[in-house]
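Sequence in, structure out. Go.
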Amino acid sequence: MTATRSPKKPPAAPLGVNRASTVALYEQIADGLARDIRARKLKPFDKLPSENELVANFGVSRVTVRQAIRKLAEAGLVTSRQGKGVFVAGPVVKQELSALHGFYDSLISEGYQPEASVLSFERVRPSLAAPELRQFEYDIYRFRRLYKIGDMPIAVADVSMPGFGIAVTREDVERHPVYGLVQSIVKRDVARATAQVRAGRAGKDVARLLKLKPASPVLRMDRTSFDSQGLVVESTQFFIQPEVFAFQLEVAGPLKIASSIHRVGR
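Output:
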């Protein structure tokens, strides 16, 4: 008995592509993804499907997919991360420098739900030779944090914090932001802080964590916080993705204006 074969089904039509259209395929793909981004079906910092997935979904070549991604990147809608993929570009996260805010709290206040993971944790006992300084021989806790929004790594923080005679555990560090540790665990107030922001280059470890090429430009912020007695309660070095974070400072007048410009070479 000969088995009858059911008729072969035609392949499903690729998503969002009209091959009869005069619009180039890569432009159709880019326009469709752009609509999803603007409609927030793809949210800021979401990861786009991989190149292989886009090729399969749309039934086009890799060259066509790469042209579409390039068009989205030129429009500022996506950014690429080495070894990680392509992400929807997000609005710049702003931190006000004239007010005392923790880094994590600034992300929350901007409406994000950041993930902060502890990558390393150690306790160091300083050795002070002078007997009169023994009362300040507190354990120093050092830890490294990685901050992410969705799948996008945005910052690495290296923190040093004295315990002031109180034991701090890795679990404490995993549960609290830095200022929360200072106030809730170590029981110190945070009265003021100094911060210096400058351009820097990512070392190998930081570049790997932020999915950047080695020596890529990053924002570097060095922050030191003090209690009301003037004692240092934490010192942190941040390495931050420059395209997703900005620092702003509001200043008041009166404005001082120079009366003239000194001309050179006359």
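Check: The two ends are 106 Å apart (CA to CA). The chain is about 25% helix and 30% strand.
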